[in-house]
Write a structure and sequence with these properties.
Largest sheet: none
Number of domains: 1
Low-confidence stretches: 178-197
Strand content: under 5%
Radius of gyration: 22 Å
Distance between the termini: 32 Å
Order of helices and strands: HHHHH
Mean pLDDT: 79
């Protein structure tokens, strides 16, 4: 009873976080659209229009990050009820999170380069530092995935359980009753050794 209540509290908390990520993402999309509309409809100079577009790209980048993080939390914590006990689940969750962060940092560094190249070239090292941080994070992520792959081979049951969850969530999204994958028309999952699960 207590375990169910605690689990419900966590799911409700994660659902609230997903809703807030969604609201923030759509708010940023709206800001980008309004800024672009004002830039197009008002008579602004070319450099000012370029700055408006760059600001809009920045808003949209953060919006994509917020929406993707909300989707990740929804799928991993609410739909799958993931527990970070297995290497496959940890790698999948962290990979989905880090891909958003790395892409957002890379886009922000490009925006900063374009912005600082025109207005304040003395700040270009700051943009380069953002790009270097994204590259370092990408390299560290690659090392983590490589090391985690070895752990998955030691624990193939963790990979099999994660693939079964994927099939159940896919069946739930496709409308199969009870979240169970239909027998004949869904792909079969295999573990690291290639065995069907």
């Amino acid at each position: 009873m207590l375990n169910t209540a605690v689990r419900f509290a966590f799911v409700a908390g994660y659902a609230a976080i997903v809703g807030l990520f969604l609201a923030c993402g759509w708010y940023l999309v709206g800001l980008a659209a309004m800024g672009l509309w004002r830039g197009v409809t008002s008579a602004v100079s070319l450099p000012a229009g370029f700055a408006v577009v760059l600001r809009g790209i920045g808003y949209l980048t953060i919006a994509v990050a917020a929406l993707e993080l909300g989707q990740t939390v929804l799928e991993e914590e609410v739909l799958r009820s993931t527990h970070m006990s297995g290497p496959t689940r940890a790698r999948r969750f962290l990979s989905r999170f880090l891909v958003v962060v790395v892409v957002a940092l890379a886009v922000e560094s490009l925006i900063a380069v374009f912005h600082f190249a025109q207005d304040a070239p003395e700040h270009l090292p700051h943009a380069a530092a953002i790009a270097a941080a994204a590259a370092l994070l990408l390299a560290a992520w690659g090392v983590f995935v490589w090391l985690n792959r070895a752990a998955e081979e030691i624990e193939p049951e963790s990979m099999a359980a994660a693939k079964r969850e994927d099939l159940e969530v896919q069946a739930l999204e496709d409308g199969a009753p009870g979240g169970m994958a239909p027998r004949g028309d869904s792909p079969r999952a295999t573990d690291v050794a290639g065995r069907t699960v």
